[in-house]
Amino acid sequence: MNFPLSMTYWSHFVSVAMFALGLLGFLLRKNTIVVLMCIELMLNAVNLLLIETSMRTNTPEGIILVVFVVTVAAAEVAVGLGIVLNLYRMKGTVNLDHFKSLQG
Amino acid sequence: MRETLFMVFSLFTIAAASGVVLSRNPVYSAFSLILSFFGLSGLYLLWGSTFMAMIQILIYTGAIVVLFVFVVMLLNLQTVRENSPNLLFLVGAAAAVWLFSLMILRVLTRAIPNKAVEIPTDQLRAISKLLFTRYLWPFEVLSLFLLVMIVAIFAITRTQEIPQGGEKK
Amino acid sequence: MEAFLPVGFLLIFALLLCIGLFTVKRLLGPRNPVASKLAVYECGVTPEGSARAPFKTAFYLIAVLFLLFDVEAAFFFPWALVYRQSLSEGPALLIAMLVYMALLVLGLVYIFRKDCLKLN
Amino acid sequence: MEAMDLIVTAVKTAIIYLGMVQVVPIMLIVERRGAALIQDRPGPNRVGPFGLFQPIADVIKMMMKEVTIPRQVNKALYLLGPFLVLFPASLVIAAIPFGDFFTLFDRNYVLQVANIDVGILYVLAIGSLGIYGILFGGWASNNKFSLIGAMRSSSQIISYEIPLGLAACSAVVWYGSFSLREMVSIQEGTLLGVLPNWGIFYQPLGFLLFFIAAFAETNRLPFDLPESEAELVAGFHTEYGAMDFGTFFMAEYMNMATMSGLMVSMYFGGWHLPWISDATLLQWLGSRNLLAALQVLTVIVKIAVFMLIFVWVRWTIPRFRFDQLMRLAWKNLIPLGLFNLVLTALILYFKGAA
User: How far B54 CA lies from chain D's nearest CA (Å)?
Assistant: First the structure.
């Protein structure tokens, strides 16, 4: 392998690493807000892969798909954080361990 | 040149992304998130997609993270106590590491052309045209979707006003 | 993308300026910390309670509405870019945008009617 | 790109950047003397002839002041705060065209830091980052005034970003391009033989929206809620002193210059002199570089006019209340921005159809 590895390689690496980091945070962190941030990380990992493929193979569909992903991400954050605020009003905390009413 | 820059931005992005996960204080997490999105937009730029790079900064960094920071500051949480490692914690970590190694193995073993690819210039006009012709219906649905979101958010936050009047029991 | 190379230079110069300002401030300014100098500034009154306390969530609504409208406004831009060129192809693009905007305006009207932002 | 090109580009960038930083000392004296003129008092007139060396004295004073880091602050973010505002303010100037191009060693260089094809999006995107310095600085200060000031300031900035974007969007519809350079080149010549062919005559409502939003984005009066001294001490920078405070002000003046530059490029013909085309000027002057110098001078004069308007408005219009501010943004400016967009599209459509 010659040293400055290709951009494709790095894109895949960053994408996978970011997705794994997001997943790690999503599973391990207890702060609901940080968990939502980790979801954003995972979405962005996928976005990077989409843009990489779209630009490399010169197909515009990937970028159009990213446009939709961005919108959905924005809406998800807006509603998600609204729910977090509501939960905080009811329980006085954002620690995920305290939200157990659905556990039975 | 381009490859080296790409490597620098890649490492920067990953470092910032790990900052999001590892910071105890949610404010630092949000700050790392900004840096990570900034790095990502650099990567998009290096791939030649200037439009998406700008949208990344405009929407993600300029609006979505603002919302995160707002909520963190409005609630003014001191650090939430993270649980000490228990079984569930270990299973979660193992799952993430397992998935990571699986994916990275796939990336490494697949023959990726390790040569500089021809970067096409961003066919911005062509993409926009496509968005408003072939993908017009999804695009209009997007608008409807955002409208529904506005209503939904108002519905969620309105219930908040009830305990606010008479202080919490 | 080559067009963005000078922005890299600008980034470096801006960083240099920031570092310069930081060091100048550190080197030239005297330092004589006294307890009352380092206290919270609240017009001389002894501060009561921490500033880190939760407060009104009205700001959240503004931020959320900004986020949604910013997303909508951002996707006007690709349309704006191609609109002038495609005038000869009939009103398809104009109608597409009008429908898109009608939904946006509907959201705006909803906000005003329900008075989400306490504007009235 | 050759090494020579790189060096010329770096030097050009440095000169433009240093030039933009010079806005700060100049505006210090202009603002104080302008305020004095409007309020019918002498103003600073002791240091040097007509008080012209006052900014130097001011800057030295700022630098020599004691640096206090209050006990309660979150140190890292507190120290970072001012630079988080200055940094985006420095980056935005990349998109502003100062002239067509100049020739050096038989090569042409654009009179602009970077000829970005998505110029207007770049400005909006990087411009929206300035909010973080305010938010993090205000939060890290751990002071009630700072936190409330930061929240108010950021709510104001985000609310006015939408009309700003919509006004810019209408301009994009009209010019059919994202690049500020292309927008300026379209504005050459005359309209109906009497008026200069400037964007303001095609987009009067868009300009008005952009103008109002620009005031709010730069936190200038009548929208200087975050700094309202009477009720909030100093808003988000209550706990900042010495050069940190100075850095916030540097950023504010640089933002003002950038906004003026944008308005000049989008609505006031950029480097074009009214009524005279570039080709005629080139004939008169005979040299490409002389023309470039004249173009830069034109842009600087136009920006200076806008800066004076900023000062003039500051001492003329009283401050809005917070709810009035929000009502203006959401109930007036955003619907007007949408209306302007539809109007532009319809006019273009019927003009094209006819």
Answer: 6
